[in-house]
Amino acid sequence: MHVFITGGTGTIGSAVVAELLGNGHTVLALARSDGSARALERAGAEVLRGDLADLDVLRSGAARSDGVINLAFGRDYSSPDALSRAIAEEGAALTALGEELIGSDRPIVTVSGTPWVPGRASTEADPLPTDGPVAGRGRSVTALLDLASRGLRGMAVRMPRTVHNEGRGGFAGLLTEAARRTGVAGYPGDGTQRWPAVHALDAAVLFRLVLESAPAGTSWHAVADEGDAVRDIAAVIGRRLGLPVKPVPQEDFGPFGPIFAMDQPASSAHTRDALGWRPVHAGLLEDLENLQP
């Protein structure tokens, strides 16, 4: 399969590109910079220059492919407005990609987060949120999946709060960045709230499995660790960086503060049973031991 991928140089994307190439697929990858283009070429991918806002470029990439994996997302999370702009840009990109593929029965796999469900771990059957800070993403992904009736094999891989590799990435990575910046390995609330996690290399396998075989309109959970306590995550970060560990106001984390403070475990039992996905790489707390002071 010739696969068009956006976001192919990120923590998840670079692992997905390698997974696809290592399993007999070819890759056409969107690159917004010379550095990204060089990295993708070194990995063995063909490069298409442009960024997520270039809708005509996205359509041309989809038209040239047998399937699409959409992973790109804005990098500015400094304010609620910046996060909203990134979500809107992603939504427009998904609309353009979906419209290009309607009627072809070609697959498109997009990414979202696992939903929050009060009092229990979320499952693949739970809907994405339609209100709150990431509601726009939930609406965009749901709209894509609803195109199954129009000849589009659209699927969503829901990612946990931390996708990690060598101790970097995801919400745990944001905690690490905040700790380096402030000199405190902080966490909001009492730290008992749980975040799910997955190693990027395990997530990449799931993206390939979903692309190859998942039915249209389905959602899957790339969850290896159902929920690590945020206090335990901060404790490893503090020990590795030689910093004190203590609670801090959720406002210190900007637009992510309310999300960081939530208990949000997630299950992947259905994904494992239905697709045979088996995470084999290090869990989050073990992987954070790779952090360097």
From TrEMBL:
<dbReference type="GO" id="GO:0005737">
    <property type="term" value="C:cytoplasm"/>
</dbReference>
<feature type="domain" description="NAD-dependent epimerase/dehydratase">
    <location>
        <begin position="3"/>
        <end position="215"/>
    </location>
</feature>
<dbReference type="InterPro" id="IPR051783">
    <property type="entry name" value="NAD(P)-dependent_oxidoreduct"/>
</dbReference>
<dbReference type="Pfam" id="PF01370">
    <property type="entry name" value="Epimerase"/>
</dbReference>
<dbReference type="InterPro" id="IPR036291">
    <property type="entry name" value="NAD(P)-bd_dom_sf"/>
</dbReference>
<dbReference type="GO" id="GO:0004029">
    <property type="term" value="F:aldehyde dehydrogenase (NAD+) activity"/>
</dbReference>
<protein>
    <submittedName>
        <fullName>NAD-dependent epimerase/dehydratase</fullName>
    </submittedName>
</protein>
<dbReference type="InterPro" id="IPR001509">
    <property type="entry name" value="Epimerase_deHydtase"/>
</dbReference>
<feature type="region of interest" description="Disordered">
    <location>
        <begin position="115"/>
        <end position="135"/>
    </location>
</feature>
